[in-house]
Amino acid sequence: MNTRHPSVITRRAAILATAATPLAIATRARAHDGTDTQCGSVVSSLPAPAIRKSRRKLTIAWNEAAICNVAVPVAKARGLFDRYGIDVDYVNFAGSTDQLLEALSTGKADGAPGMALRWLKPLQQGFDVKLVAGLHAGCMHLMTTQNSPIHKITDLKGKTVGVTDIGGPDRNFFSIRAKEAGIDPETDISWRQFPADLLPVALQRGAVQAISNGDPFSYLQKHQFNLVEVDSNMNGHWGHTTCCLIGLRGGLVRQEPDIAADVTRAILEAGAWSHCNPEEAGKIFQPYAPKASVADLAAMLRTHDHHLQTTGSTFRNEISQYADALKLVGVFPPSLDTNAYATRVTQDIFRA
């Protein structure tokens, strides 16, 4: 077991059920060549939920374009919400993070998946939203051309990187990676914003020397334009840290903690199932990514780790770790008490 993350749910554990994180997952083992040797199903060590006389209706906001959110449609398609007496409506939300957090705060939506590095700064504004679980690791990629002299993060010094959002999670993440490698992401690297479909064009024309984005765009562009990966958030210690999370409306967590726990559990179970069944998960997600084949989507899911999920104190520590990293690159002020911040914005909804 990973001693640094005592309640991390990973594919390297057979069954994990801790007091702080009472979720048990039967996982798959991997051979040294990365192929599956077995794959179990998700189970829960929590007591059976209370029988509800009527189904509870909830609204989940999500970005249909991001395959890192695959657990959301899978949970509905597999009947996992039904298992807990929850009737979920989906809202495709492509607005700003501030708008999404406001929608959660005001009850226009009850929950949403998101990226830690996109949510943490806006959450400083005091939105009534609680982060309750880490959903998976992996999905951000830094890429360049085959003949590029850029082979590692430090090679970005003096170069220009194309991104879709100057304040986006991939810009923040690779800025953190640069800082960890000893170069200043503000003075040593230039960042230019382009629409996602123009990033590889900008790279080919020499307007930028590297590009960063998330899946499914990164995977498809890598193969279409014969690009190579320089770095991703599956490298180093970040590969053992969840990057995407589940956020819930604060009122739901306080007033209906059993519902909050059940909807979270359904999404986590869907994520673990997707990890074990990437082809089937790809089929479920394919209507939202018509430019990608099921085989492509399954391949993307295999590069992520949808079986690395965190709750409780481990999840809170990850949020604190991200906040510390954002201090390094100037997103958060040096004076921020990151432990207090993480305690304020997270909630252990599975604690007895």
What does this entry look like structurally?
- The protein is an alpha/beta fold and 352 residues long.
- Helices cover 34% and strands 16% of the residues.
- The chain has 13 helices and ten strands.
- The strands form three sheets. A five-stranded mixed beta sheet has the order 7-6-8-5-9, sandwiched between helices. Strands 3-10-4 form a three-stranded antiparallel beta sheet. A two-stranded parallel sheet has the order 1-2.
- Helix 10 (278-285) crosses helix 11.
- The longest helix is centred in the C-terminal third of the chain and has 20 residues, at 257-276.
- The radius of gyration is 20 Å and the shape is globular.
List the helices and strands and how they pair.
Layout: E1 56-62, H1 71-77, H2 80-83, E2 86-92, H3 97-105, E3 111-115, H4 116-119, E4 129-136, E5 140-144, E6 159-163, H5 169-180, E7 189-193, H6 199-204, E8 210-214, H7 217-224, E9 228-232, E10 244-249, H8 250-255, H9 257-276, H10 278-285, H11 294-303, H12 312-328, H13 338-345
Parallel strand pairs: 1-2, 6-7, 6-8
Antiparallel strand pairs: 3-10, 4-10, 5-8, 5-9
Helix pairs in contact: 1-9, 9-10, 10-11, 12-13
